User: What shape does this take?
Amino acid sequence: MNQLDTKIVTFINVKGGVGKTTLSINLAATLAIRHNKRVLLVDGDSQGSATKWVGHAEEGSEFPCTVISLATASGNAHREIKKFIGLYDYIIVDCPPHKEAKLNASILLVSDLAIIPFNPAPIDLNAIDELIPLLNTTLEYNPDLKIYALVNRHDNRKISSEVVEYFNENQEITLLRTKIKSRAVYCVTMLTGSSVYTSNISAAKNEIALLTDEVLQIL
Ligand SMILES: Nc1ncnc2c1ncn2[C@@H]1O[C@H](COP(=O)(O)OP(=O)(O)O)[C@@H](O)[C@H]1O
Ligand SMILES: [Mg+2]
Assistant: This one.
């Protein structure tokens, strides 16, 4: 629970490759550049993908927010993160893809919003299912936690009825209105240490701006 001004947004999924790092980076950069917010990006993954991402930036075009790693903080991550409350407007956390990671449980305890990126295929729903026990336990201690799922790599097809039904049945998770499409620019910016917000692909920039607006509305 975080009653001070700083809002903590956590990207989480037991599965890797769903877009946690990509979306953390892009939300963080958009909040910093477009909304002029003080943003701390926390890399919670021992693979250090977010840290490596921003490390690719060239001199003079540095990533617009501070990035720290708490990958080794494990069950202490919530205490570590509390040290930054009040210093930033938003803390965005990129979680590791493990069901058992103590860091995930710890970070959720202090989060205001958990976002679960997933590919809108029924098989990806199994991964969300695996997260539900942890989410339910978290809600006992942090009842104000808001939990949303985010369609990533959307291909314009109608979301399948299986996916829609899943969110009707699991009411503790709401589907975000914004859907992120599959676009090469997300991979390209990973190699240039930047975000789509400073790219010239306006469709990507717009969808991340919409996601950011939706997150701001929720918080
Ligand atoms: N919307 C998207 N369009 C195209 N590629 C994407 C998109 N989202 C993620 N990717 C790519 O998918 C791979 C996995 O994404 P990543 O953010 O590292 O996932 P995670 O952090 O969940 O493991 C990366 O190569 C990334 O560039
Ligand atoms: Mg990652």
